[in-house]
Amino acid sequence: MAITTYSELQAALVDYMGDNAYTSSRAQTDIALAEARLNRELKSVRSSASLTGTLSSATIDVSAYSVISPVALYVTSYDEDDEIVFRPTGTMPFSDDDNYPLGYTLISNNDTIRFNCPLDEAYTFRFEYVGRFALSDAAPTNQLLTDHPDVYFAAALLWGAVKNQDGELAASYKALLDSFIFETRNYLAQAQRSTLVPDMALLAISSSRGFDIDRGE
Asked: Are 62 and 115 part of one and the same domain?
């Protein structure tokens, strides 16, 4: 069974536990508890979300994605993806006229994308970001689940054993998870060295030259 999405992870847990009392609802709880440890141990994960804007609106709600920092935002409505420039809050002028978006920022504790203008059509976007581990129906996958489903699976199974009061099995799952986390932490550290994430201080400096809405510069 492939484990690449939130629903597939739930199904795999239910199937593995082989217990009629172990439902998808319980699997969701175990995944959430597992992610609490993953957020402490691994800190963050790179993810991607497909978004759709609203005509005449300058914002998109991304509160479901637990965003820590943006990586990139692309308009995907056409044949070639078009990257939109990120600007730190307070450095980007806004226009009241509906238009094609040339810049964006994050507001409300990174829960909302705000463009430099209201959208002149309902564009589609691909938002790449670094976020906390928080799988949901709205955010069904992330890079850790894609690359290391064994980590997620072991972390959730540990809580299944704890709830079943099976101390010996829980100890085995914990040892396995500790090993997985150690290996994955090293892997992610190496991967993050090659991942360009916007430096807010540098962006603020570069933005001091201003932002031409008409030219996108």
From this structure: yes
Mean pLDDT of 42-69: 93
Q: State how far the Cα of 14 lies from the Cα of 20, in Å rounded to an integer.
A: 8
Dihedral class, residue 216 (left if φ above 0, else alpha if ψ from -120 to 50, else beta): left
Domain coverage including residue 40:
6-44+135-193
Phi/psi at 102 (nearest 5 deg)? -115, -20
> If you ran DSSP here, which 8-state letter would residue 114 be given?
E
- Tens of pLDDT, residue by residue over 86-113, are 999 888 899 999 999 999 999 999 999 9
pLDDT in tens, 114-128: 999 999 999 999 999
Whether the CA torsion 207, 208, 214, 215 is positive or negative: it is negative
Token pair recorded at residue 183: 């290996």
- Residue 83 CA to residue 93 CA, distance in Å, equals 18
> Per mean pLDDT, which of 1-5, 65-69, 161-165 is the most reliable?
65-69
Q: With respect to residue 1, please indicate whether it lies within any of the assigned structural domains.
A: no
Same domain, 52 and 105: yes
DSSP string, 117-185: S-BSS--EEEEEEEE-S---SSS---HHHHH-HHHHHHHHHHHHHHHTT-HHHHHHHHHHHHHHHHHHH
C-beta neighbour count of 7 within 10 angstroms: 15
